[in-house]
Design goal:
The chain is α+β, with helices and mostly antiparallel strands. The protein has two domains: about 45 residues; about 120 residues, predicted glycosyltransferase like domains (Thrombin, subunit H). The chain is built from three helices and seven strands, in the order ααβββββββα. A six-stranded antiparallel barrel has the order 2-3-4-7-6-5. About 10% of the residues have low confidence.
Length: about 180
């Protein structure tokens, strides 16, 4: 055998090991990440993607400014919050949008926590849903806190709950 000569079988194994296998592994990792991102996005939106958007949901989901993605209505209703570890606190809603709600309360809840929320509305009975903490002023010094509270993003809303929240929002947005 000549010096420096690589048999064809060794060359194929080298190419496979040094080039094709790493490329395949990277592609598999990217595909897995894309699938997971898609699944998480569907869960966060609380939809299977099969339902059609009604005209009112399109109106409620139209961005209104660069600061806030959705129109917010001032809504002051009593609210009960229950954390995953069973702690409960009463509060009062301050505003609501198509994507979430701000609740004034003294309870400190860490970001990304999932809580059970019950809006004790007079019309139509209570509205119960899950919310994910998207904003909290718990980390601010007390002198900078105007009103203690927590912002929740709606999490995996059932269609009937979404409709109740849309009606509540529409009733409080008026003719905007």
């Amino acid at each position: 055998m000549k010096k420096g000569f690589v048999p064809k079988s060794c060359y194929c194994k080298t190419v496979m090991h040094n080039f094709i296998l790493p490329v395949f592994m990277i592609m598999a990792a990217l595909l897995t990440a894309a699938i997971l991102a898609f699944i998480l996005l569907r869960k966060r939106l609380g939809s299977d993607g099969d339902e059609e958007k009604s005209p009112e949901s399109i109106i409620l989901s139209t961005p209104t400014s660069t600061m806030r993605e959705f129109a917010r209505a001032e809504v002051r209703l009593p609210v009960m919050i229950t954390t995953a570890d069973g702690r409960e606190a009463g509060g009062e809603s301050r505003n609501i949008s198509a994507s979430g709600i701000f609740i004034a309360c003294a309870m400190r809840i860490p970001p990304d926590s999932i809580c059970d929320i019950k809006i004790l509305s007079a019309a139509g009975g209570p509205i119960e849903f899950k919310g994910r903490v998207t904003w909290s002023n718990q980390h601010l010094p007390e002198e900078k806190v105007i009103e203690a509270g927590v912002g929740f993003g709606f999490f995996a809303l059932a269609p009937e709950i979404r409709k109740k929240l849309q009606r509540l929002l529409q009733a409080n947005l008026g003719d905007r």
